[in-house]
């Protein structure tokens, strides 16, 4: 049986602990290791912060909809806002160009969140048709060992 837990919270940083605690509880129940849970918490926190800071920047306030869905082989987390969308491919291209031509110590603040999510999760999908939806998937049993 697939388990699904849904949260709707105000798009404010003060409420992100609710998302992190829910994620932690579900991930422990599903058998994820501590390091995997910490990676998920960072990635989900980044997606939520992006929605709060960028999605509702010009709108003042809004809501975040977070859905945790147990998969046969892991956990899928959808973070959705109804705020201002952005051009995902343009953002990736702009950041990729900056990463290849700039020393890390000189990189501008912001813009690396999408890369961080991709590094920490097994699958990342971004939909920007109406608002923004970030879908993060972490698979059970995958080890993050360096080769």
Task: Describe the protein.
The chain contains 4 helices and 5 strands. The protein is an alpha+beta fold and 147 residues long. It has a single domain, classed as Heat Shock Protein 90 (2-Layer Sandwich). The protein has a 5-stranded antiparallel β-sheet, with helices on one face. A hairpin with a 4-residue loop joins β4 (123-127) and β5 (132-139). It starts with a strand and ends in an 8-residue tail after the last strand. This is Serine/threonine-protein kinase RsbW. Keywords: Kinase, Serine/threonine-protein kinase, Transferase. Residues 9-138 form the Histidine kinase/HSP90-like ATPase domain. Pfam families: HATPase_c_2.
How far apart are the termini?
Answer: 35 Å
Number of helices: 4
Q: Which range does the strand content fall in? A: 25-35%
Mean pLDDT: 83
Question: What is the name of the CATH topology?
Answer: Heat Shock Protein 90
Low-pLDDT segments? none
Category by helix and strand content: alpha+beta
Based on Cα principal axes, name the global outline.
globular
The tally of strands reads 5
**Helix content class:** 40-55%
- Biggest sheet: strand arrangement: 1-2-3-5-4
Measured on Cα atoms, how large is the radius of gyration? 15 Å
- The CATH architecture assignment turns out to be 2-Layer Sandwich
Helix and strand layout, with pairings?
Elements lengths: L3 E7 L5 H15 L3 H22 L7 E9 L2 E8 L6 H14 L11 H8 L2 E5 L4 E8 L8
Antiparallel strand pairs: 1-2, 2-3, 3-5, 4-5
Helix pairs in contact: 1-2, 2-4
